[in-house]
From TrEMBL:
Family matches, as CDD domains: LCL_NRPS-like (cd19531)
Gene Ontology molecular function terms on file: catalytic activity; phosphopantetheine binding
Name listed for the protein in its UniProt record: Amino acid adenylation domain-containing protein
SUPFAM superfamilies assigned: Acetyl-CoA synthetase-like (SSF56801), ACP-like (SSF47336), alpha/beta-Hydrolases (SSF53474), CoA-dependent acyltransferases (SSF52777)
One Pfam assignment: Thioesterase
Cleavable signal peptide: none
Gene Ontology biological process terms in this record: amino acid activation for nonribosomal peptide biosynthetic process; antibiotic biosynthetic process; lipid biosynthetic process; secondary metabolite biosynthetic process
Length: 1325
C-alpha cells in the first residue's frame, strides 16, 4: 500500500464512520476564564528549547513594516488594544504545573509602544538606522513565563513616513499569524474608530489547544509513526557541510543571518517548472536547497527539516497562534541526478510527509530512539521554509522579509527561510556561528541563488555539472587568491649551487659530526674525484647509480658525486627489507651501486657494479676539479613512495624543480653563512634534499646525525645544542615527543622549526610556541611536487584549525571537484598541483600511472601540467589552504606516505589468505594500521606468520600494528568495507574496557585513583581499569620516564624503571607508592615472561637501564621467558663491584629460574657481569646453559700488554656512556648519573679470573659512534681469550647502540635463538 493510498483509506474510514476531517467551530467548547491549558505539540517543542537555552532569542519572530505616513499616536494605541482584546495569544502566560507546561489568559492590558525619531537624518542613513533599530529589537530575549510575549515599536522617518517593528515569541504565533495580524492592524488604523470595530466570532487559540489535547486520534498517530520509523530507519545522515571549525560538544545557539533575494525572473521559471511537474514552488525551491547541501557536503541521502502550516482544520485559519509543524523530509537523490529528477524525488517526499503529519515531530523522535547530543539535532541539521506573503492589503504599507538579518542566533547548522512576494523570493539564510563565519554564510547564500538560477536554466542537466559560483568568482579563485611566477634559475644539476658556494668560501665548514669536519673545499674535492671515477666507468645522463649506505659523510659525498657525473641517484636505505631492496634495484636497473660499511651486506648480487666508498684509493688520483656533465631536464633522483599495486613506485624528479623549491624556501626562511642544519632524515625521502642541499647552497654547515639515531629525540636535542643548529625539520609525530622531553634552556639556537608530512595539530602548535623560541613552519607537498605550500604558524591558542599556508610562487594549486571544475572558497575538493617547473617528470617505468596522475593543466599556459594529489583540501577566503584528509585510501603515518592497498596486496598474496583490508585507526592520539584478514576455506593463517612474511617485503613503518582474522569483510551500501563494523569488533591495541564491567575492580583507595589519573595523562587514554598494565596500554621507553616524573611530583616517591616493569598495573604501582620504601628493591625486570619456557636474562650495560632490551625481548618472547636486570640505586650496599652485582643478581634469579634452562646475555659492561654470574652459578652446581656478551670490552686488567691496559682504562674513563648506550643521563636525573659512575668504577677495578666455560662474543660490525679511542676488535678478542679460552666470536649488524634496534634487533634475536637451541641440543646429547 502506498502512502497516498493510506491517506485515502483513512479518509474513507472517516466518511463511513460519519466523521469529518475537522470539527465545526461551534462544536469547539470554550475554555473557562482562568483555566490552565496544556501546550500544543508545536508549543511544547518551542517551550523546551526556550527553557534549555533561556538566554537565547532564537524563537523571536520580528519584522519591519514601512508606512507612507506616521500614524496618530492615540489611534495607534487604540488599534493595538483591539488586537489584544481579540487575540488571546497576545495575552498568554506560560508556566509549569507538576512539571508540565501550561498556558493561561492573563487578561487584557494596555500595550507598551516604544517610539524612535529619525526625522532629522538623510533618507539613506535613516533607512539604515531603522534596520539597526529593528535588529536590536529582535535580539531582546522574550521569556515564555514573562508576558507580554510580543513587542511593538514605531520609528518616525523623514518626510512624514514611519516604520513599525512588530515581533513576538514563536510560542504564541507563527508567520501566518504575523501576516494576518499586520493586515488586521492596518485595517484598524484606517478605520474611523478602531475600538468600536466588532470582534470576530469563533474559537480562540486556547479553545483550540484544549480541544486538540482532548481529541487525540491514537490509531492515526500509530499509522503515522509506522511510516516515520520506516522512512527514518537506519543510521541517519549527519549533515557534513564544510565548516570553518569543528562542531562543539554543546551548541551555543549563536548564529549569523544574511539576506537572500531572488528576482521575479527566476521565480517565474521556478513556477513554470513546478507546473510542468505538477508540484509546487515549495518543492522546487526545496529541491534546489537539497542539491546545494548535497554538493557542499558530498551526500546524496539528506534529511531536511520542513515546516508545514499545521492548520488542519478549516476554523484554524482565522486563529492567531502557533500551529506550525516540523517534519523530517528525507530524500536520497539518484547518482548523477538531474534537477528534474531531484524535483520529482523531493515531490514524493513532501507528499508522503503531508499525508503523515498528524503525529507530532517530537513523538517521532522519541519513537526513533536516536542518540541525543547537545551539539547536533538528532534527526536533521538543515531546515527549510517557504511561505507566501502578499503584504498588507492597504496601500501605503510594505514589508521586506529579508530586511532583518541580525537575530544573532541559529537553531540548526543551516536554515533557509523564504517568502514569496510580488518582487520575487526574499528571506534569510541562517547558519550556526559555532561552525561558520559570517563570510561563509554570505557565500552559501550567493551559491544558492546562483545555483537555483542555473538549475532552472537547464533542469535536465546533471546537478553536479552546474557550477556553484559565478564566472567572476571562479576567476578570482583560480588566479586572484595567490600569485604565480614561473621559476627562473640557471642551474642544471643539484651540485651547481653548491659549487658556487665552494668558490665563495672553500675553507668554511660544510659537514660536521662524529666523523669530524669537512670544509666546502674538501667535500667538493672528494665528490669531484668520485664523480670523475664514475664518469670514466660510464655514468652520465640517462644512467642510474644506486646508493646503499648509512648516514654519514660518505653518503653526502656520493649524492653530490652522482649529480656532478650527470647521473641519477637512487637511494636505498640499508634498513629496508632485503626483498624491497632487491625489487628497487631490479626496477631501476642501475649500472653502479655505491655502498659503505655494513650496508655492503645489504646489496644483492646483480648486473650492477658495486663500488665501496670505504676505500677511495681507486679514484684518489682523479681530478679534484668540477666536471661539466650536467644537461637540462635530466632526472636527478628517483625516490620511492608507496604504491597501490603492492609494489612501490619511483618518482622521477629533476634538479630544476628541486632547486626552485629550495630557492623559494631560502627567500622565506633563510640560512646564513655560519648557520647549521641537521641531517637526520633518511635520504630515501624528499625532505632529505632540504637537509643535504639547502644549507650547502647558502654557506651554512650540516651537522650529520649518527645512523639509527634520528628517532631519539633526546639525541636530537643534544645535537641541536652541541652544534647550535638554527633550522631543523621534524615531522609532527616526532616533534610532539621532542617537545614533551625538552627541558628548559635547550635548543635555544633554533630559529626555524619546519614540520610537515602529516597534520600539525593545535596541541602541537601551542606546545611548540610554548616550549621553543623558534618559529614553527607548517608545510605541505607530496614527493611528486616538493614544497607546495607553507606558512609560519601564528600564535593562535584555542583555534582548532592549523592551516597549510599559501602556495609558493612556483606552483598554482587548484582545488577541483570530480568534474575538474574549481570549487568555491571554503568548499572541499581535490588538490591539483600545477607548475611549469617543480613537478616530477612522472613515475619511472610507470607510463600508465604517470598519465593517470600527471594531467594537462586546463587553467595554465600551454604545456603546463598538474599533479592529482588525492588530498582533500579547501581554500580560505584569504588564499590560505587547509588540509582535510585523503580522498582515497592513501594516508601518512608518522610522516611516511602509505597506500594501505599496497599492504593489502602483500598480505593477500600469502598462503591461506583470501582477502585483506587495512584501515587506519587512531588510539591515544596516535595513528596506526590495523589489518583484517579473511582466510581461505579450510585455512587457519597465523597473524604472527602473516606479519613476519609481510616484514620481508615492507619497511617497518608500513607494517600493521594488529592483524585480526575475521570471518568476512562487512561492506556498506556502496560495496566498500564497512569501517565502523570492522572496528566495532576489533580488539584495540592496549585493549581498554569501554565501560566498567561487573567484575572490573574499582579503586581501592585514593592512591589508586590518583595513579589511574597519572596513567591517563601520560598515556593519553580516557578509560582504564586498575588491572590494566602500563605497557599493554601503549606505554614505551620514553613514557616510562614521564610516568616516573609524574609519580615523583604527585606522590613525592621516586620510582625506578624496574618497578614500572615489575608492577606495571595501576593497582600494583599504587601499592609500590603506598608501601614502605627501601633500598632492597628487586632488580629483575620481566620483559616478556612466559611460564614454563627457558629463561633468558639480559644484563644491563654501564648505564644500568633495562629499557634498551624491550624491542629485542618482543622478538624472543613466547618461546623464551625474557627478563632483564636493572642496576640497583646509587646508595644500595653491596653493589660496588662486578662480583657483588653478579652475586646479587644470581640470588634474584633463583626463584624465577627454578630448575629450567638459563641463558645470560650481557651488553657492554653487562658482559663482564654475565661472565661472573656464570662462574658463580657453576660454583653453586647450577650452571647456566649459555653465556653471551654483546659488544663487550674486556676489563683493562685482562689486557695482554701495559699499553693495551692503559688504552682500555683511558677509553673507559673518557667514554660518554650515555651517548654510547643511547641514554640521556643529563635529563634522567642524578641517580642514574651516580649509578653510571659507580658502574664505571666497578668495571675499571674488575680483575676477572680465568674460566673454562664457553662464552659467545657477538661484536658489532660498525664502530662505536663516539669520538673516544676504543680498543680494536682484535685487541678485544685477544684479551677475552686470556680469560675465556673457549670463546666463540661472531659479528652482528649495527653498531654498539643500533644492534638492539629495528631490523638489527630481529637479526640478533635469530642469533640468540640459534645459540639457545644449540646449547639445549648439546645438553640433551
Amino acid at each position: 500500500m502506498t502512502t497516498t493510498e493510506s491517506a485515502r483509506d483513512r479518509l474513507l474510514r472517516q466518511l463511513l464512520a460519519g466523521e469529518t476531517s475537522g470539527a465545526a467551530p461551534d462544536r469547539i467548547p470554550r475554555v473557562p476564564p482562568g483555566a490552565k491549558v496544556p501546550l500544543t505539540p508545536a508549543q511544547r517543542r518551542i517551550w523546551f528549547f526556550s527553557r534549555l537555552y533561556a538566554d537565547s532569542n532564537e524563537y523571536n519572530v520580528f519584522d519591519l513594516v514601512h508606512v507612507d505616513r506616521t500614524p496618530d499616536e492615540d489611534r495607534l494605541k487604540a488599534a493595538l488594544r483591539v488586537l489584544v482584546r481579540r487575540h488571546v495569544a497576545l495575552r498568554l502566560r506560560l508556566s509549569e504545573v507538576d512539571g508540565e507546561p501550561v498556558q493561561e489568559d492573563c487578561g487584557t492590558h494596555d500595550p507598551d509602544v516604544t517610539w524612535y525619531d529619525l526625522t532629522g537624518h538623510p533618507d539613506d542613513e535613516a533607512e539604515r538606522r531603522a534596520t539597526d533599530i529593528a535588529n536590536a529589537c529582535s535580539r531582546e530575549v522574550l521569556r515564555p513565563d514573562r508576558p507580554p510575549l510580543w513587542r511593538f515599536s514605531v520609528i518616525r522617518m523623514p518626510h512624514g513616513r514611519a516604520a513599525f517593528v512588530l515581533g513576538f515569541h514563536h510560542v504564541i504565533a507563527d508567520h501566518w499569524s504575523w501576516t494576518r495580524l499586520v493586515d488586521e492592524f492596518v485595517g484598524l488604523l484606517d478605520a474611523p474608530a478602531p475600538e468600536d470595530q466588532p470582534d470576530p466570532r469563533g474559537p480562540d487559540f486556547l479553545d483550540y489547544a484544549a480541544w486538540l489535547h482532548d481529541h487525540h486520534d491514537e490509531r492515526r498517530a500509530e499509522e503515522d509513526l509506522a511510516y516515520w520509523t520506516g522512512k527514518l530507519a537506519g543510521p541517519l545522515p549527519v549533515l557534513a557541510l564544510p565548516a570553518d571549525r569543528p562542531r562543539p560538544k554543546v551548541s551555543t545557539r549563536a548564529g549569523h543571518s544574511v539576506p537572500v533575494r531572488i528576482g521575479t525572473g527566476p521565480l517565474a521559471r521556478a513556477a513554470r517548472l513546478a507546473r510542468e511537474h505538477d508540484t509546487t514552488l515549495y518543492v522546487v525551491a526545496l529541491a534546489a536547497y537539497h542539491v546545494l547541501l548535497a554538493r557542499l557536503g558530498g551526500q546524496r541521502d539528506l534529511v531536511v527539516g520542513g515546516v508545514f502550516a499545521g492548520r488542519d482544520q478549516p476554523f484554524t485559519e482565522d486563529i492567531f497562534g502557533c500551529f506550525v509543524k516540523s517534519v523530517a523530509l528525507r530524500t536520497e537523490l539518484p547518482e548523477r541526478a538531474t534537477f528534474a529528477a531531484a524535483v520529482r524525488a523531493v515531490h514524493r517526499t513532501v507528499l508522503e510527509a503531508q499525508d503523515h503529519q498528524y503525529v507530532p515531530y517530537d513523538d517521532v523522535v522519541a519513537r526513533l530512539d536516536v542518540p541525543r547530543d547537545l551539539g547536533v539535532d538528532p534527526v536533521f541539521q538543515a531546515q527549510f521554509s517557504l511561505q507566501t506573503a502578499e503584504g498588507p492589503a492597504a496601500d501605503g504599507y510594505r514589508t521586506d522579509p529579508s530586511g532583518l538579518a541580525e537575530y544573532g542566533t541559529a537553531k540548526w547548522d543551516m536554515a533557509l527561510v523564504l517568502t514569496e512576494t510580488a518582487d520575487g523570493l526574499s528571506g534569510l539564510m541562517e547558519c550556526s556561528a559555532d561552525l561558520f563565519d559570517k563570510a561563509t554564510v554570505t557565500r552559501f547564500a550567493a551559491m544558492y541563488t546562483h545555483l537555483l538560477d542555473r538549475l532552472l536554466d537547464d533542469p535536465d542537466a546533471e546537478t553536479a555539472s552546474h557550477p556553484l559560483i559565478t564566472d567572476a568568482e571562479r576567476d578570482r579563485v583560480l588566479y586572484g587568491l595567490n600569485a604565480y611566477a614561473r621559476p627562473d634559475h640557471p642551474y642544471r644539476s643539484l651540485a651547481e649551487p653548491f659549487e658556487e658556494q665552494v668558490r665563495l668560501r672553500p675553507d668554511a665548514t660544510a659537514l660536521i659530526g662524529d666523523e669530524g669536519t669537512l670544509t666546502y673545499g674538501e667535500l667538493n674535492a672528494r665528490a669531484n674525484r668520485l664523480a670523475h671515477h664514475l664518469a670514466a666507468r660510464g655514468v652520465g645522463p640517462g644512467t642510474r647509480v644506486a646508493l646503499c649506505t648509512h648516514r654519514g659523510f660518505a653518503m653526502v659525498v656520493a649524492v653530490y658525486a652522482v649529480a656532478k657525473a650527470g647521473g641519477t641517484y637512487v637511494p636505498l636505505d640499508p634498513e629496508l627489507p632485503a626483498d624491497r631492496i632487491r625489487f628497487m634495484l631490479q626496477d631501476t636497473g642501475p649500472t653502479t651501486v655505491l655502498t659503505a660499511g655494513t650496508a655492503r651486506d645489504r646489496v644483492p648480487a646483480g648486473p650492477w657494479e658495486v663500488i665501496s666508498l670505504d676505500d677511495p684509493r681507486p679514484w684518489a688520483d682523479r681530478p679534484a676539479t668540477d666536471p661539466d656533465r650536467a644537461v637540462p631536464h635530466q632526472v636527478s633522483h628517483l625516490l620511492y613512495t608507496s604504491g597501490s599495486t603492492g609494489r612501490p613506485k619511483a618518482v622521477a624528479s629533476d634538479a630544476a624543480g628541486s632547486i626552485a623549491d629550495i630557492l623559494w624556501m631560502q627567500r622565506n626562511y633563510p640560512y646564513h653563512p655560519g648557520d647549521t642544519a641537521l641531517l637526520k632524515t633518511s635520504y630515501g625521502f624528499d625532505v632529505s634534499l632540504w637537509e643535504l642541499c639547502w644549507p650547502l647552497y647558502t654557506g651554512a654547515r650540516v651537522a650529520v646525525c649518527r645512523p639509527g639515531e634520528h628517532w631519539d629525540v633526546r639525541y636530537l636535542a643534544r645535537m641541536i645544542d652541541e652544534y647550535q643548529v638554527t633550522t631543523a625539520y621534524v615531522i609532527p609525530t616526532q616533534l610532539q615527543v621532542f617537545l614533551d622531553e625538552l627541558t628548559d634552556g635547550q635548543c635555544t639556537s633554533l630559529r626555524w622549526m619546519i614540520s610537515g608530512g602529516e597534520p600539525v595539530t593545535p596541541r602541537l602548535r601551542d606546545a611548540c610556541h610554548a616550549r621553543l623560541g623558534a618559529r614553527l613552519v607548517n608545510g605541505y607537498g607530496p614527493t611528486e611536487a616538493g614544497r607546495v605550500t607553507d606558512m609560519i604558524v601564528p600564535r593562535d591558542p584555542g583555534n582548532p584549525v592549523v592551516p597549510l599556508g599559501r602556495p609558493s610562487d612556483n606552483f598554482r594549486l587548484h582545488v577541483l571537484d570530480e568534474h575538474f571544475d574549481p570549487v568555491p572558497v571554503g568548499v572541499p575538493g581535490e588538490a591539483f598541483i600545477a607548475a611549469e617547473v617543480g613537478l616530477a617528470q612522472g613515475y619511472f617505468n610507470r607510463s600508465a600511472l604517470t598519465a593517470e596522475r600527471f594531467l594537462p593543466d586546463p587553467f595554465g599556459p600551454p604545456g603546463s601540467r598538474m599533479y592529482r594529489s588525492g588530498d582533500l583540501c579547501r581554500y580560505r577566503d584569504d588564499g590560505v589552504l587547509e588540509h582535510l584528509g585523503r580522498i582515497g585510501d592513501q594516508v601518512k603515518i608518522r610522516g611516511m606516505r602509505i597506500e594501505p592497498a599496497e599492504l593489502e596486496a602483500v598480505i593477500a598474496e600469502q598462503d591461506g589468505v583470501e582477502r585483506c583490508v587495512v584501515l587506519v585507526v587512531t588510539e591515544a592520539d596516535e595513528q596506526h594500521l590495523a589489518a583484517f584478514v579473511v582466510a581461505e576455506d579450510g585455512a587457519r593463517p597465523d597473524p604472527d606468520r602473516i606479519a613476519a612474511d609481510a616484514a620481508r617485503m615492507l619497511p617497518r613503518y608500513m607494517l600493521p600494528t594488529t592483524i585480526e582474522i575475521v570471518d568476512t569483510i562487512v561492506t556498506n551500501v556502496n560495496g566498500k568495507p564497512d569501517r565502523a563494523a570492522l572496528l566495532a569488533g576489533r580488539t584495540a591495541r592496549g585493549a581498554l574496557p569501554e565501560a566498567p564491567t561487573d567484575d572490573a575492580p574499582g579503586y581501592a583507595d585514593d592512591t589508586e585513583e590518583r595513579m589511574a589519573a597519572l596513567f591517563r595523562r601520560v598515556l593519553g587514554v580516557e578509560r582504564l581499569a586498575v588491572t590494566d598494565g602500563f605497557f599493554a596500554l601503549g606505554g614505551h621507553s620514553l613514557l616510562v620516564f614521564r610516568l616516573i616524573s609524574a609519580c615523583t611530583a604527585e606522590f613525592g616517591v621516586e620510582l625506578d624503571v624496574a618497578e614500572i616493569f615489575a608492577a606495571p598495573t595501576v593497582r600494583d604501582l599504587a601499592a609500590r607508592v603506598r608501601g614502605p620504601r627501601s633500598g632492597a628493591a628487586r632488580c629483575l625486570v620481566p620483559l616478556a615472561p612466559s611460564a614454563g619456557a627457558p629463561t633468558l636474562v639480559f644484563v644491563h650495560a654501564a648505564s644500568g637501564s633495562a629499557l634498551p632490551f624491550r624491542e629485542l625481548a618482543e622478538h624472543l618472547g613466547g618461546e623464551l621467558s625474557v627478563h632483564a636486570l636493572q642496576a640497583p640505586g646509587p646508595d644500595t650496599p653491596g653493589a660496588g663491584t662486578v662480583e657483588e652485582l653478579a652475586l646479587r643478581y644470581l640470588d634474584e634469579l633463583e626463584p624465577v629460574r627454578g630448575h629450567g634452562p638459563l641463558f645470560l646475555v650481557g651488553w657492554s659492561m653487562g658482559g663482564s657481569i654475565a661472565l661472573e654470574m656464570a662462574r658463580e652459578a657453576e660454583r653453586r652446581s647450577a650452571p647456566v646453559d649459555a653465556t653471551v656478551m654483546l659488544d663487550s670490552w674486556p676489563p683493562a686488567a685482562s689486557c695482554a700488554t701495559p699499553g693495551e691496559r692503559e688504552r682500555v682504562r683511558r677509553a673507559i674513563e673518557d667514554l660518554d656512556i650515555g651517548a654510547a648506550e643511547g641514554v640521556d643521563l643529563d635529563t634522567l636525573g642524578g641517580d642514574l648519573v651516580q649509578v653510571t659512575e659507580r658502574n664505571r668504577r666497578a668495571l675499571l677495578a674488575h680483575r676477572p679470573e680465568p674460566w673454562d666455560g664457553r662464552v659467545h662474543l657477538l661484536r658489532a660490525a660498525e664502530p662505536l659512534p663516539v669520538a673516544t679511542a676504543v680498543p680494536t676488535p682484535d685487541e678485544d678478542e685477544t684479551a677475552w681469550r686470556g680469560v675465556v679460552p673457549d670463546l666463540v666470536r661472531d659479528v652482528i649488524p649495527g653498531n654498539h647502540l643500533t644492534l638492539l634496534r629495528g631490523d638489527n634487533a630481529a637479526d640478533l634475536a635469530r642469533r640468540l635463538r640459534r645459540i639457545t637451541e644449540e646449547s639445549l641440543v648439546f645438553d640433551e646429547i
